[in-house]
Amino acid sequence: MKTAAVLITAIVAQAFGDVCLTKGMKAIASLEAGSSSMSDSLSQVLHIAVQAFQSPMIWVGTLLLIVFFALFSAALSWADLSFVLPATAFGYVLNVAAGYYLLGESVSNTRWAGALIITLGVLFVSRSGQRALQAQPEKAHASGVIE
Amino acid sequence: MITALLVALVVLGGSAGDVFITKGMKQLGEISTLNIRRLIGLFGRAITNRHFLIGVFFMAVSYFSFLGALRLADLSLVLPATSISFVITTFAARLFLKETISPIRWAGILLVCLGVALISIPQP
């Protein structure tokens, strides 16, 4: 139950973080678009970096991604990596949904199919979770001994 | 050729990063507190844990290889290719972290890998 709560919070933070970063970077890009064609000269990169640094949207997005990473790491302190990693892949599904509903992006059928398959995969993985979690304390102990 | 090498670095770097971060976090022990002082203490122990730091280093290698690969090849090639990392990381977890992966978990991971590849393919 703890694992589910932590991972769901992590995934939601990641999805909203990605939305904030996209909104923030798109706002900068549209400011830049008028000035010149896209070139990766150093001054241009620096200019974008400075603008990103001043954007509240990008700060919030970055903060949410830090929250994601902290919760992801926390979950790894007790759960299997082979459980946590595929479980967080549900974030891709939320990203597709957020892109569609919050950012007004068009989403192809292939992409919706991918989202559906990931959801199915995460359901499978979560069904395997119970057993892995019960085995966890022994494993953590065993690896501690090896160290 | 260099693109393939960079994509391999993206995938292997990411997997190595995940494995080392898991090792580091397992050394900290199960986190089961909401006490803010204890959490700050745990944060301090995490970012000074050698395995955790090596993991973050590999994550950085993976990220910069990703940026490098994007300079040479399209995102439409690089992003679906990296979906294989779910499978590679699972093998690494089995080998280096001694995790047992049940058939249903394997099935789920393969589905996730396929789904991520489908999502990453560029839209027409």
Features:
heterodimer; A: 147 residues; mainly alpha; disordered C terminus; B: mainly alpha; 6 helices; 0% strand
Description:
The complex is a heterodimer of chains A (147) and B (124). Chain A contains six helices and no strands. Chain A has helices spanning 2-33, 42-54, 56-76, 81-88, 90-101, 109-146. The longest helix of chain A is centred in the C-terminal third of the chain and has 38 residues, at 109-146. Chain B is an all-alpha fold. The longest helix of chain B has 27 residues, at 2-28. Chain B is globular. At the A-B interface, helix 3, helix 4 and helix 6 of A face helix 1, helix 5 and helix 6 of B.
List the secondary-structure elements of chain B in sequence, H or E: HHHHHH
What's the average pLDDT of chain B? Answer: 91
* Class by SSE composition of chain B: mainly alpha
**Number of beta strands of chain A:** 0
Topology of chain A as a string of helices (H) and strands (E)? HHHHHH
What is the distance, rounded to the nearest whole angstrom, between the alpha carbons of the first and last residues of chain B?
27 Å
Biggest sheet of chain B: strands, sense, closure?
Answer: none
Quaternary structure annotation:
heterodimer
Based on secondary structure, the structural category of chain A is: mainly alpha
Q: Give start-end ranges of low-pLDDT stretches of chain B.
A: none
Portion of residues within helices of chain B:
over 70%
**Radius of gyration of chain A from the CA trace?**
19 Å
Shape of chain B: globular
Strand content of chain B: under 5%
Counted by DSSP, the helix tally of chain A is 6
- Major interchain interface with per-chain residue totals: A-B, 48 and 46 residues
Please give the share of residues in helix of chain A.
over 70%
Number of strands of chain B: 0
